[in-house]
Amino acid sequence: MRRAAGHRGAAAIAAGLLALLPLASPAQETDPLAPEARLSIGQQIAVENGDLIGITPLDVILRTGTRVQTLQFSLSAPLRLNDPEEDGTIALGDPQARLLFRRGVRNSALEAELGYRENDLDDEILFDNISNEFVTLDNGRVAQTDARLTYVFGRESKLGGEFGLSWLRRDYSGTTDPDLDDRDTVDGNVVFYLEPTPLIRARILAEASRTRGETTDSRSDRYGAGASLQIDKLTNLDVELARTAIRREQNDRIEETEGPSLRLGLTRSRPLGDWSLSFSSDPGTSGRREDFNIGRTLDLRRYTLSGQIGVTRFQGNYDPIFQIAYRQQVSRLSELQASLRRAAATDEDGDEALNTDITASYSRQISDVSSIAANIRLRDSTVQSGDRQDARTVSFAVDYNRALPNDFSLVAGASIIRSKDSNDTRDDEERVYLGINRSFSFLP
Hints:
Residues 1-27 form the signal peptide. Keywords: Signal. This is Beta-barrel porin 2. The chain has a single domain (8-441), classed as Maltoporin, Chain A. Helix content is 2%, strand content 68%. It has one helix at residues 8-17, and strands spanning 36-48, 51-56, 58-65, 69-76, 79-81, 90-92, 96-104, 108-120, 141-153, 159-173, 183-197, 200-213, 216-230, 235-250, 253-270, 273-282, 289-299, 303-314, 317-331, 334-346, 352-365, 370-383, 391-404, 408-421, 426-441. The protein has a 22-stranded antiparallel beta barrel. A hairpin with a 4-residue loop joins strand 13 and strand 14.
């Protein structure tokens, strides 16, 4: 499989870890409001699946901000030399770009975001928070373009609201799975809040989603009402009742369902953390899904720990679900993070699965000029409805960085990915890289 740069494997795995715990290193903390204009370029040599490839990473970061608003832009466009999977001698690797604008005042906030990325489909799961994606073994590639706009008002008033609109386009190339067709998805939501008393915050909500693909079209609508209630100084209750309608059309076959959606949440504060109970029940074209969880969080001086355990019911079957996240500042120079989660997922075709995700990372500042980081991740999809295959992916990466004079840095690392599905299809990847990078800062 084609790779963007030697350090992309670890970066992708770290992106997955962000889903549960923020990955941070003491040496990398920066002021989010400080203006920044930085260009990084380098030259690396990588051995990928036995092939010797030259890589020229090119990264741009621009940021400006005040206490009221921020504007950020990032671009990664690596060049690859003598890649046997490309037609030409020089080719563009896995490009990524993102533009983010935020503006907030006391009572309202506006946020807009535009992004693009392209990568091998086998690596796609490493970019996703645990959501509605299944592990997929396919030799193709995917290009994703997304846009998002959110406006919130009345955050500190008795009357407020939120408007959200998002667009996502996924273009596949070189794939063999018929379920992977190009598609556009548009989502919108409106929520109005009313606070009749200091102890009650009621809401009216409406959500809509439209997906149009080459072989699949789907639409879902959800509207209802809810409220957050403060029962006493330590206990809060959240209740939401809505009506959900789903319609999917695939290969001239239509599936429709409509029914109530119920969500309940109860939290109670304790000195070291919170206890929580939650229940949800939602209709689907393959059957109703019901989840029940009990959770606990601990926030101590040296570490934080949060966990949930429960059960999900689908088509008359009960399966355990759980989530555990652990973070520890081992010392002033090192940090350890680990997470485990099993949750139900529904893809855009209405297929159901149980996703299990295990992640762990360790970072250490070896000296004032050098650091090392290691990441491991396992992702497993057990399909409960539809014709998709059960699949599993295991990834491991280690990266080393050493600062050199005149803004140069030495980078090195290795990564391994092992994938397998229920048809005994396998996809194995290995990479080792070594290189020199240099950063140019255009602001003092």
